[in-house]
Amino acid sequence: MTFLLFLLFLFLLLIGVPVGFSLALAGSVGIWAMMGMEKLLVTLPNLMYSSLNSFTLIAIPLYVLMGNIMIRGKLSDEIYDVLNEFIGHLPGGMAIITVLFCTIFAAISGSSVATAATVGMLVLPEMLRAGYQRRFIFGLTAAGGTLGILIPPSLNFILYGALTDESVGKLFIAGVIPGLVLSSFFMIYTVIFSFKKGYKSALTSNWPKRFAALVRAFWSLLIIPLIMIGIYTGIFTATEAAGVGAVYALVVSLVKRRLSMKALTDVLLDTLKTSCMVLIIIVGAIIFGYVVTVLQFPQQIIGWMMAHQVSALQFLIGVFLLMLFLGCFVECVTIMVLLTPIMYPLALYLKIDPIWFGVFLTVNMELALITPPVGLNLFVINTIVPDSKLGEVYRGVWPFIVIMILFLVALYLFPSMATWLPGMMSK
Length: 427
Fold this sequence. Notes:
80% of the residues lie in helices and 0% in strands. The protein has 22 helices and no strands. The N and C termini lie far apart (46 Å).
């Protein structure tokens, strides 16, 4: 029965039904087949209400709002100017700035696509004019954008926390060190590649210009420590931090007179569209997950794992391969909300730390964002540069896919990378 429902879901996707509605329709058919139409009419409204009746999920529209304000209010441009003044004159400086800007903007937006789009619009035209290899910079920007769902605030961590009842605050803190380490991996490759290619910069800078850029961007940069320190010290929860960040970004943008009434209206509409898309997918996934739970699919897998003595490492390799395959065809939010209710009980059975597992799943989702042919970040980059070809983007992203797989190995070998800071929070 479960297999047939998955096939129905995939069929609906193939004929063009939106993801959230595909999940909801497949789940509804399952409830109807098992319990009848009367039970379906009673169960469906309850599931739809309970799926969104969550304090944690309030953070999604608030973080999206904060990121949109930072973009439309040009606060992200100020941060880019600071990096450009300090690093832009170095050999390969533009490529290094791309990684650093992705890292910093990831701590603002919570979204991979928003990070790739914003950074790409600022750096790609400049790097093309400077003569950087096209496929290198396409792959670099697409991969750097994936940091948006690993470095907090991360919409993926919010989803994982909502689906598993794990602490979103601990998940946020757990993503800090892995995010910085992965960013460092990207940086090392970028420096080596730029050195081999002999990329040089014609930009010049001096300390008065750097200091002036830092002063201009001071209030924009302050939003990152404001959120992280507030969550880490327990001053406010991750959801409350979203509200604080959104209000702070709005006040700074208005004080700097960067947001007109029309721009603010556009910000609210963009936030509404993005938030509704994510929340509809969550509703559909909860309906589909209800059927999977009633059919006891996770328990059946646990029984099979017990019979075959599956180890934690074998399970994690299986999850990686499954998500790598699905990432070629399905976008990451769908994979996350579809598989988490199934994988989470299995991880608990194998005594895998649930916070570490959330980071592991999120890194796998990063891979899904740049895996051909359907990785969303690949299409974002292709859209930013009109004369680019998807083939160029596909070729440019492969070195970064290898880097991310190596990072997953490092995360497995050194689990404290994701568990040390959350452990410090509970002391």
